[in-house]
Amino acid sequence: MTGGSLRAELERTNYAGRTVTLAEGAAVVGATTLLSLRAGRADALVIGAIGALGLADDLIEPRRRRAGLPVEKGLRGHLGALRRGRLTTGAAKAIGIPVVAGIGVLLAPGPRRPVGLIVDAGLAAGSANLVNLLDLRPGRALKVVLPAAALLAAVPARAGAEREARERSGAALALAALLPGLAALPADLGERGMLGDAGANALGAATGAAAARRLPAPARVALLAGIVALTAASEKVSFSAVIDRTAPLRRIDRWGRRPLPGDEGTR
């Protein structure tokens, strides 16, 4: 594939009709994976694999659409296709991301209690999916990931020698999401690039895994419940519509974003 054809393959038209590139998301996956090595080789492999599943979805689904083939939307649509015997890239993500996240939890440092393993895997996989669901407007997903990752990087370590490696790896994962996210923010808000499934999944997984290692059990359970509730709601409710109807959320969502083409000359 030539450089020109690769650039064209990565180009998308966003909600405002502007051309953006998925190269931002691919770069975020690479940077997050590399920085995750500070947490451990297993963590880097997990983040890289989750990002790769997202990148496959980013590239294969548009090809199917251009070929006039059916393209399912939403978790229900992908699982419905799977029941009919067709594995979509979305279904591959729905199955693959929890499996990869579970492997990452099994290889992570720290205590391994059965319920805790399920919650921790759910946080990594659920956060990967939720951040992707939020990536519908410039900067929206990053405005959620960056404060969360910053807080997780700064939260005081819990006492106990056996927790030291777990806390250290959690802080490293938070930084692995924070630094590439900060670097991507100008291009994302400027509508030159977008995270896509690849970048959103990688940042979400790193942030969720960091939460699993840095938060106490009650906070982890509450956070997972919130993620599950929002994910379920997304099947029936448009996040964009809710944000546009809620003034504080609308102001935060539009901060730093370019105006729509028809509004660029107005104030």
Q: Which spans of ≥5 residues are poorly predicted at pLDDT below 50?
A: none
Structural class of the secondary elements?
mainly alpha
Instruction: Characterize the main sheet.
Output: 2 strands, antiparallel
Give the termini separation: 44 Å
Strand order of the largest sheet: 1-2
Globular, elongated, flat, extended or rod-shaped: what is the shape? globular
Q: What series of H and E elements makes up the topology?
A: HEEHHHHHHHHHHH
Mean pLDDT: 88
How much of the residues is beta strand, in percent? under 5%
- Rg over CA atoms, rounded to whole Å, is 18 Å
Would you count the extended β strands for me? 2
Helical fraction: over 70%
Q: Number of helix segments?
A: 12
Characterization of this structure:
Helix content is 72%, strand content 2%. With 267 residues, the chain is mainly alpha-helical.
